[in-house]
Amino acid sequence: RKAVTLPALQNMKDAGKKIAMLTCYDASFAALMDACAVDMLLVGDSMGNVLQGHATTLPVSIADIAYHTSCVARGNKSALLAADMPFGSYGTPESAYENAVKLMQAGAQLVKLEGGAWLCDTVRFLTERSIPVFAHLGLTPQSVHQLGGFKVQCKTTEGAERLLSDARALQEAGASMLLLEAIPASLGKSVSDALRIPTIGIGAGLDCSGQVLVMHDMLGVFPGKKARFVRNFMAGQTDIASAIRSYVEAVKDGSFPATEHCF
Ligand code: KIV
Ligand code: NA
């Protein structure tokens, strides 16, 4: 297939075609996901949980993400490749740029950062310097100690209004995409409708431009507590390629997420 690009994903949103994204951490899974037509791969700082066995994403370093990004880039041919900026790597625009360059040189095509309006200067600084930005709002796991746990966000009217204004500000600052995690499905819809750029949801309802899951969750290999938004796509399948294909199909035809996966 043709390489998936940011303009191609923008066209998918405009045409109402759903974007299927998965996290990925190594070359073999990257080759398999690419062959199964996953549109976008994310080298997530969820590696802190699923690869490294930590309780949070906070211990993940820029070197960890750069190493796994280089592994994924070697296995991937055509999926768009995003990499997470880990905790502590984007406190200022300058430090964000220095660290994002490492991920881009490892093979990332855009970088994901967690945060609202306070991040706008950094988003502008990166995009002006040719680094596309994927913003992340809602449940932002790097803020777990401020949030007091991994819980659904923006359940109040004020919270929903703040998220919507953060989303608009990030798009205005130049973000190419927006990830929405663990928010009411109705808010996922209003943000996706209000923005021009594609939104990718994880526990953010069916009306986002696309969906993402952590690979270990969708294959049923993560031993920890399963979040409401997770579906095990290995159930009823005999091989991993079939599970990945059934995930892509379910995202594309709108059968995932179902109401039981939403807030
Ligand atoms: O690190 C990660 O896996 C993420 C999720 C939202 C997919 O950021
Ligand atoms: Na992440």
TrEMBL record:
Q: Which residues form the active site?
A: E181 (proton acceptor)
Q: In which pathway does it act?
A: Cofactor biosynthesis; (R)-pantothenate biosynthesis; (R)-pantoate from 3-methyl-2-oxobutanoate: step 1/2
Q: Where in the cell is it found?
A: Cytoplasm
Transferase found in the keyword field: yes
| Catalytic reaction equation(s) | (6R)-5,10-methylene-5,6,7,8-tetrahydrofolate + 3-methyl-2-oxobutanoate + H2O = 2-dehydropantoate + (6S)-5,6,7,8-tetrahydrofolate
EC number(s)? Answer: 2.1.2.11
Query: Which InterPro entries does its entry note?
Result: Pantoate_hydroxy_MeTrfase, Pyrv/PenolPyrv_kinase-like_dom, Pyrv_kinase-like_dom_sf
Q: What is the UniProt remark on how the cofactor binds and its stoichiometry?
A: Binds 1 Mg(2+) ion per subunit.
Q: What is its main location?
A: cytoplasm
What are the GO cellular component annotations? Answer: cytoplasm
- Which positions bind 3-methyl-2-oxobutanoate? D45, S46, D84, K112
**Which residues does the annotation say bind Mg(2+)?**
D45, D84, E114
Sorted alphabetically, which CDD domains does this protein's record hold? Answer: KPHMT-like
GO MF term (any one): methyltransferase activity
Q: Which GO terms describe its biological process?
A: methylation; pantothenate biosynthetic process
Keyword list, A-Z: Cytoplasm, Magnesium, Metal-binding, Methyltransferase, Pantothenate biosynthesis, Transferase
Which cofactors are reported in the record for this sequence? Mg(2+)
Q: Which domain of life is it from?
A: Bacteria
* Family the entry assigns: Belongs to the PanB family.
**What biological function has been recorded for the protein in this entry?**
Catalyzes the reversible reaction in which hydroxymethyl group from 5,10-methylenetetrahydrofolate is transferred onto alpha-ketoisovalerate to form ketopantoate.
The entry describes its oligomerization and partners as: Homodecamer; pentamer of dimers.
NCBIfam families (UniProt xref): panB, PRK00311.1
Q: What is this protein called?
A: 3-methyl-2-oxobutanoate hydroxymethyltransferase
Q: What gene codes for this chain? A: panB
